[in-house]
Here is the input.
Amino acid sequence: MELNAYQGQVLSDLRLYLQRWQACDDAVLAYRAHWDAQGALHMPGYQPARHGAPQVCAKVPTAGGKTFIGLHATACIFEQLQRRKGDARLCIWLVPSLSILQQVLTALRNPEHPYRQTLNRLFEGRVTVLDKSELLAGGQFSLDEVRDGLVLTVLSYDSLRATNKENRKLYQENSALDDFADRALALAEGTDPASLVAAMAGLNPLVIVDESHNVTSGLSQEMLCNLNPAFVLELTATPRAGANIISFVDAMALRDQHMVKLPVIVRNLPDQDAVLSHAIDLRARLEADAAAELTEGGCRIRPIVLVQAESKSKEGARSFERAKADLLERGIPAEWIKLKTAEHDELKGIDLLAADCPVRFIITVNALKEGWDCPFAYILATLADRSAPVDVEQILGRILRQPYVRKHGQEPLNMSYVLTASSVFSATLASIVAGLNRAGFSRRDFRTPDELIAPASPGLAPPSGVTQADLPLFNPPQGHSPVAAAISLHSSAAEPTAVEATLAFALQANAELEQASTALQGRYQAQEVRAAMDVCPVRAQFADELARLRLPQFFQAAPANLLFGSEDGQVFLEKEALLAGFQIADCDVNNFALAPTSGDLVKLDLLRIGETGGDYEPTRIRLKEPEIRKLRDYLSNLDGDAKRRQLSGLVNNWLGKMPPLADSDLRAYIDKLLARLSPAELDQVVEQQHAYVESIRQRVRQEMQRFARQRFRDGLGLGKIELRASFALPTEISPRQKAAYAADNSLYQREERGNGLEERMSDFLADCANVRWWHRNQSGKGFALNGAIKHYPDFILCLQSGVIVLLETKGGDRDNSDSAAKIELGQQWEAAAGRNYRYRMVFETTPPSGALSWAQACELLRNL
Here is the structure.
């Protein structure tokens, strides 16, 4: 089980925030820099938590894989925490309900489950998963366990809120936890210093808060303070007010990765009987499509209807008993029907995904509002009083998950359906929109019937008495399309064309969504982020040209183990692919040079962290003088081999992970380096941790780049790597800092302001008659030359002749150590792209081989 594209982006956003926090040791400043770097200059500021540790949030819609993201996030965060402080790895995973707690615990304890396999891979098998009773019992929860590996405990919010006698056990003296006596911290009033909460607080744990929108009360915030966290990560589809969101996932990204069944098709019917009849007929049609899918080599799917009955407390309500009786009267077998209410749980112990499971109808009131997911649930049929708005908000998300996380050949199986009967349909639509919001989707992702229904479509009309003014406005951002469509058909559900009409409308809405997805090319932007940006669209005179332009990038044959590539088997070349088979332990360790030890090893503009893929990540690992003395005294009593083994582990921890290198490979390389040092030099490793760690990091990166560059040259020479037109520039940008003025020939209405030579080049291009248009390329999210490095040229320009030129500027204030690699990649790109493309590097001072001086560049651009 691997991270998909948007899940990987969430982890990338988290890493960038962690790197900024690592660099400045300030959660507020790191958050500001995080969003400024993306052009979201008006994002609300960071809200500090009472506990004082960084607390950030990832907004991921329902069915987006929050648990899987959280497991990977655990490894990312501990990697940074261990560089900063300490050796303990305790993760407290908080969930809102006992049902979710049991689901998570069961998955993490099952060695065959992808979640546990992921944890084992991330932490090299040294993982202990504990519940509350096991923590209280001690034994498995010990200092050795949290030092040697990861201890992850899953707890409910209520178990830490200490509102009843059972929960108070966590705050009371516990002799089974004597192992933590020297580290325990009793931060809450009434907490015993020998209690479980004190022991956990003393370990400065990482806290993952699942469904964090439930943690808003003062008691909940006090709960987090009592845990003394080192870092708190919230995961939710609907962040609480004031959450410090560092990553947003768009609904369309989930659809593109086949995580959800979108669009949601909403049909309004005359009465409750029509809803049930239509649900039966529509489900039967979907099951016929599922049978055809299986015959054609697809997956086995058994579509399920969720029947939302009314509470018995309502007079004349369509209760769950009556709903079941109605289904039985319509010929539905009893074994197909199960109840799931607060009093009746007929789903317990049933595997709904099993091939021999007969269940096709599940009747509930609101018991499925949270913590229940079955990808076979396709239809939500609500039986509310026709004169009242239908409240589907709580359980709409239960029908969104896509079976088998793949697109199915029968298009109706890629969508979900809501059937209602309401004379106040506008209010029902509002509830459906609220349900989408609850699932992490946007109000702007909903379209009204008038906007979706084509005039020529027979029988399709808005509900009686409902006008456009009554319905929620659809005002999507540029390039976005709805994830829900509404239809009101007042024909009888008994008509043979009723289901066909529903599916015809569904296919129409789905085709529209598919077209929007293709146009966006995976570049989705959350409304919250967009609203915080200063958006600059493309100039009207260049819009058509931009729509046709595709800049060439490098592609390679898809690896044999890759499930999804392009139709011709080619995939975008990532620099990590060039490192396949690389082993740092096989590299030479001769001529190893120590980095300078004076001054700061890393001085880095926070806005530039991550623009080069994290290549210049800062590190803070300096030991304090007492720690150095203690470690030196300990090592002095060891012989040479034992000292090397201890130092190897220390250096490996200080260095941290260096993907894609395996930890064992990196450790073997460190062993080789230390084997060359004399006893006196070994003593210096502790005294000069910064110098040794930075030296090793630089050497490893040099070896990796040397290997990747040779692999890239070989691939080009053998025709295994080729260039193809692929990258489309966006129709709008959001500059982090706008240029001081608007140039008539800039591609966008306002470009990003540069520094030094970049600003000088912008002025020249604005006045150069030979330049048709130019664009200040945005590092980190604009066009990249992809090869052994990922290189974002400073400028993209089109000359009057139609020639596209990529320009990289190098001012006198820049570190130009990577210039040779960039020049080589640019020349390789130009040679493969052909006569209509050029790459040039411009130096303010003396240019190296393959680059131009300022005067040479100006002359070239005037006459090329």
User: Anything to note?
Assistant: Confidence is low (pLDDT under 50) at residues 444-481, 489-496, 562-566, 596-621. The chain is about 35% helix and 15% strand. Residues 689-717 form the longest helix (29 residues).
